[in-house]
Amino acid sequence: MSTKSSRNLQYKDFFDPVDGEKSAGEGGDEENGSVEAEGEPEEFEEEEEEINEDQEEMAESKTGQAAKGVHKKVTFDLSDGSDRDELAVSTGAKKPGETKSAFEKRQEKLNAQIQQLEKSALEQKPWQLLGEVTAQKRPENSLLEEDLLFDHAVWDDVVRKEKPKEEIFEYKKRLTLDHEKSKLSLTEVYEQQYLKQTEQKSEVEENVQHAEIQKFMDSLFLKLDALSNFQFTPKPPVPEVKVVSNLPSISMEEVAPVNISDATLLAPEEVKEKSRAGDVQGDLEKTETDKKRERRRKKKVKRLRLRAKAAHQRVLEKLNVKLSSNQVKEKNAEKVRKLTQEGKAMLLKDEGKDKTLRSSKAFFSQLQDQVKAELKGAKIGAKKQNKHRELSASKLKL
């Protein structure tokens, strides 16, 4: 790269151009260059071309530096419009051609962004942002313009069939269908199932011969180990007898003391079952219907007992069975009781007959009682006769 000769150096090569004098300086430079070009001899033409190229490169580099240093420069305008500038500074307004600092530009962008956000917040939202929207709330055919994600109900493919892997022990576990009638009862079947569950027996029964062979092999290997080893190897552990207690878990985990019997822990319903009538009630708790129900039940039991007794008595009379003295007395007493109830006979009491009447008052009082009893019996007989007459007359009525 060739250096520029001192003959062609200008003012702009040493100082930055002023904003107001840019256009004028550029025009003056062109005129001066043209004048100098006319006065120079022809022998320096090639040198001038090289110098011009160097000037262009330097001008480009300087313009880049000038653009970076624009923000740091302070310009002064000493024209007649200084009064207007002072007024603009006092009011806070800026000239249209004045450069702004980086902070002012950031503030303007931030204010514009805030205004845009406030405007979008106050405006009506599109239907895509309104949540669940029906066809009436969105424009017609607007759903066709959107890219939506939804599930498709796809028909299931045919399940691939695989050949089942048959194992030897699977055949033994299968239940064989027997069409013959079972010789076991249902209780015996349930008993066998219960025993299988409690005793935890394996479904595959072990072969007896296999077990015997295994036992012989274990004893043989034990002897061979003793011969081939310098140290004694103990016998392998044999499974101990397992005790199975067929008790419910609640009895195993009960917190009650041992000395308390099960009878004391029973509930009242477990001791005595409830009757069909309901809970046992006292005399004061019974209502009128309860009392009538109990009375009917007692009369029914008594009636059945009397019927059974009468049927037994008729059987004995047909068989002509001889009765004992006590049975005869009971029979006679029963007849007397029936006659007195029906009013056909009256039982006379022997109270005071054995006693000697020491006064006339006692004699006449006893006589009066006897007369009253006779009169009472006569009245009862007359009433019964009248009753029979009325009944007979009523039968004749049509």
Structure in words:
- Among the domains are: 1-70, no CATH class; 288-321; 323-344 and 365-378.
- It has 398 residues and is mostly helical.
- The chain contains twelve helices and no strands.
- The protein is elongated.
- It has helices spanning 22-39, 45-68, 82-91, 102-122, 168-173, 186-199, 208-228, 249-252, 268-271, 288-319, 325-342, 360-396.
List strands and helices in order, with pairings.
Blueprint: H1 22-39, H2 45-68, H3 82-91, H4 102-122, H5 168-173, H6 186-199, H7 208-228, H8 249-252, H9 268-271, H10 288-319, H11 325-342, H12 360-396
Q: Estimate the strand proportion.
A: under 5%
Q: Which geometry do the CA atoms define?
A: elongated
The H-and-E topology, N to C, reads as HHHHHHHHHHHH
- Kindly state the percentage of residues in helix: 40-55%
* Rg estimate, integer Å: 68 Å
The assigned structural class equals mainly alpha
Task: Please report the total strand number as a whole number.
Answer: 0
Summarize the structure.
53% of the residues lie in helices and 0% in strands. By secondary structure, it is mainly α.
